[in-house]
Amino acid sequence: MDTKKEAQILKILAMYLEAFPQNRMEPSGLVIYAKALNKYSPETVKQAMDKLIMTSKFFPSVAEIIENIQSLASFAEGTAVLSEAEAWESAMRTIRDHGIYNQKPWEFENKNIEKAARMFGLMELAMLEMDDVNIARAQFTRFYRSVIDRDKDARQNHLVLSGQGIGMIGNIKLVKGQ
Fold it and tell me: Quick count: other Cβ atoms within 10 Å of Cβ 133?
């Protein structure tokens, strides 16, 4: 672990702690935050906190800070997760453009939309009747949300099992019993 980086993160978090006067956390409690956020650069933590100070009424949890770090990174990379409505529109556009008789592979905007569409059924989506569109949209968005949630959970599991989570076993082999 990089104690210098942890100290820098701790200093940043302590500064923001002052911006939330109703918070009951002691500055010493921020040590756990700094350990949990050690994977990220101090500048990245600061950027997430800059965003959170504009949107949060209370001092954020580690999970909220990490979500905002990931959100900022996705935005900067142009890979932000689409909303359910955007995913539905993208899936419908792909299905309309592909057609049901086309032999070429389906090409969706991203893997999460493709997974949700395949969970629903590609032909079922392609052959929707007008009366069934609203129900199908609700079902598709549920599938899409579950795919997004599983993907997020898998990323978090990877962080923990790779030893990047605070106080966790840092050896995947040990967790697997090898």
Answer: 13
